[in-house]
Amino acid sequence: MNGGNRSVVSEFVFLGLTHSWELQLFLLVFTTVFYVASITGNILIVFSVTIDPHLHSPMYFLLASLSFIDLGACSIASPKMLYDLFRKRKVISFGGCITQIFFIHFIGGVEMVLLIAMAFDRYVAICKPLHYLTIMSPRVCILFLAAACTLGVSHSLFQLAFIINLPFCGPNVLDSFYCDLPRLLRLACTDTYKLQFMVTTNSGFICVGSFLILIISYIFILFTVCKTSSGGSSKALSTLSAHISVVILFFGPTIFVYTWPHPNSQMDKFLAIFDAVLTPFLNPVIYTFRNKEMKAAMKRVCKQLVTYRKIS
Q1: Apex CA 78: angle with CA 254 and CA 273, to 5°?
Q2: How far is residue 296 CA from its own chain's centroid?
Q3: Is this structure's pTM higher than 0.90?
Q4: pLDDT on residue 185
Q5: What pLDDT, in 10s, does the model give residues 69-105?
């Protein structure tokens, strides 16, 4: 890749998050706890939806897909960050940096489409309940998932197209703990102002556009729920509040970083930690605590696992 890129840079050096040993120790404990919790929670959701027949519905299929993607989201930068916390020289290879950027944008694109699909699912369930099973058929769910993956791959490749032919001849220091496309562009040995603008415009347009679609959709759904006086309104509001919370948690840091980039701001780093560590953890927590069916299914799965271990 280096040869095709006409680059003499074979690796990049991260400055990391902080030089304070006390803060590094706190980040080590904080990130480890939430990383393990994220992995455990999302695996449990995927496992519960897969084996529990009570959860074989479009809503839970999309939720399990989101949890599966969150497993990747929390594993892109967190393990490398934990490994680097107490290393003096934090490095990543050129190929590793490109790979990290690819998966960051791929997973981000997939999550955006899945969140839109989940909003559409709630719209159909609340506004067109009699046609729910017809509209949200297994085929439609698979199409949503395929569209999510297609958008994720195309968006990621489009982002990489900005840097694949750029010359990198030094410096090779990134003021971050992971490979961030806007920061990487500034290291190229050529004028990248237009490319930086295009990257910010592309990511910002997708993020803000998806966020506005979701917010408008949920406002419309909430308006419909408020107009009804059925007994299921409180349950619908509880489910919607969980969805809206996840949307805000996902899009908040992303929009801030890519729409108003601050190259020298420590805020970007800590927002990135929030997005990489906390959001994949909070997704299963929010959906589980607000959903009685999911909590009951997870208890049944845990009991089955305990019973299986005792028998073994």
Answers
A1: 35
A2: 26
A3: no
A4: 87
A5: 999 998 998 899 888 887 888 999 999 999 999 999 9
